[in-house]
Design brief:
Blueprint lengths: L1 H9 L7 E2 L27 E6 L5 H16 L3 E6 L4 H13 L4 E4 L8 H9 L3 E5 L11 E5 L1 H16 L15 E5 L7 H19 L3 E3 L6 H4 L6 H15 L8 E3 L3 H13 L12 E2 L6 H8 L6 E3 L2 H16 L21 E4 L1 E4 L4 H6 L6 H6 L4
Parallel strand pairs: 2-3, 2-4, 4-5, 5-6, 6-12, 7-8, 7-9, 9-10
Antiparallel strand pairs: 1-13, 11-13
Helix pairs in contact: 2-11, 5-6, 8-9
């Protein structure tokens, strides 16, 4: 099995599947031709509240900064708050935004089911709400949703796992490997609506191969509730991987690949595997580990032949789309939606705008991340955002 892995890992890594997920970090450059915020002079008399979930992930810091800077370029007053992964804190912040006279809210929810009261108050005050990246559920008072094609992100993650194992080539053609391969599955936080889309997209690719024996989930843990990691915590993922290695792989079996839906989880999984004595690099037999968000620490791991892949979701473009929608609402118009069927939040189908994403392998870090200005060569080399 390892020999086939190594053949796949050594193959060229130039292709990225381009389709529409939890977004990467960012080099802080928001002035790109594809992602610049729309012009306009409607913003001077409006105040916009922007609620982001946490500052513990570099991607959310980048999202907050990008949304704020692009809104301010249009002349809007911006109240940006981070909820520190605490539901009550975020709820209180949104309450305060409304009290302070917000004309519109952009919310990336910590728990997409926990804001019904705040959204009702917003509606009672004529305040429109844009759900940002994470769908707010169980409320009719969500006016628009901006995100990536989250199901396709899951498809991309599973596809990159198969490329790493050698079952597929990067161009989508059949690879030389045949399996069987031992894999384990991880999913995101169960209170994040996107996590289910990621997992279902990935399983649409992996389940047929599990059914025919090409892939073997050695632990037998394949349902979402079992493999989900609350709040996307790296430490929780590391502990689960350590437990799997102890309970399932203590008799000579080896892990060949791990489906991970987020770079923070990936780094926890990688730490557990490294501590268990797996080789240092993929070329030497380290398991294939996927990811998402193109966080700079994981981009360096990919460049260093440790993590195999991540999904790049350009947060500058996501921020720009949120700003476009906000600008339309405050001008008395309806923002453009390119999906009016997929995102049912338990009460209504929320009009949505879905963006595209890309698979990052070692061979296309330069073209996807550096040439676009998302990260610099120095940041990739150091693994630290400057």
């Amino acid at each position: 099995m390892k020999a086939k892995q190594l053949m796949a890992a050594a193959a060229g890594t130039a292709m990225a599947l381009t389709l529409a997920a939890c977004g990467g970090g960012g080099a802080g450059d928001t002035d790109t031709s594809d992602s610049a915020a729309p012009g306009g002079d409607t913003g001077e008399s409006y105040r916009i509240g922007v609620a982001m979930p946490t500052q513990t992930s570099e991607r959310w810091i980048a999202d907050g900064d990008a949304v704020q800077s692009q809104l301010e370029e249009l002349g809007y007053e911006v109240d940006l708050q981070f909820g520190n992964d605490d539901i009550n804190t975020q709820s209180q912040q949104i309450d305060q935004m409304i009290t302070n006279g917000a004309d519109l809210l952009i919310i990336a929810a910590i728990d997409g089911t926990a804001l019904a009261s705040q959204l009702q108050t917003a509606a009672d005050n004529g305040i429109q709400v844009i759900s940002y990246d994470r769908l707010i559920r169980d409320s009719a008072n969500v006016d628009f949703y901006v995100t990536f094609d989250n199901y396709t992100v899951g498809v991309q993650q599973a596809t990159s796992l198969l490329v790493g194992l050698g079952l597929l080539n990067e161009d989508g053609s059949e690879g030389d490997a045949t399996g069987p391969f031992n894999i384990e599955l991880f999913a995101g936080s169960p209170d994040d609506n996107n996590a289910g889309f990621f997992f279902n997209g990935a399983m649409s690719v992996l389940q047929p191969l599990i059914d025919d024996g090409t892939l073997v989930v050695t632990s037998g843990q394949t349902d979402f509730d079992t493999v989900a990691i609350l709040r996307w915590q790296q430490e929780t993922a590391q502990k689960r991987m350590e437990d799997l290695l102890t309970s399932t792989y203590s008799s000579g079996e080896e892990v060949d690949g791990v489906l991970s839906p987020y770079d923070g989880l990936s780094r926890g999984i990688i730490t557990a595997l490294s501590n268990a004595g797996y080789p240092d690099t993929i070329s030497d037999g380290f398991p294939i580990v996927t990811g998402q968000d193109a966080e700079i620490a994981s981009v360096k791991l990919i460049a260093d032949d440790v993590q195999f892949s991540t999904i790049f979701k350009d947060t500058r473009k996501l921020a720009a789309q949120a700003v476009t929608a906000a600008d339309a609402f405050l001008a008395g118009e309806e923002p453009e939606a390119n999906d009016t069927e997929t995102y049912e939040n338990g009460v209504k189908v929320v009009p949505s705008y879905l963006l595209e994403s890309d698979i990052v392998y070692a061979g296309n870090i330069q073209s996807l991340l550096v040439d676009s200005g998302y990260w610099t060569e120095a940041e990739v080399a150091s693994g630290v955002a400057e």
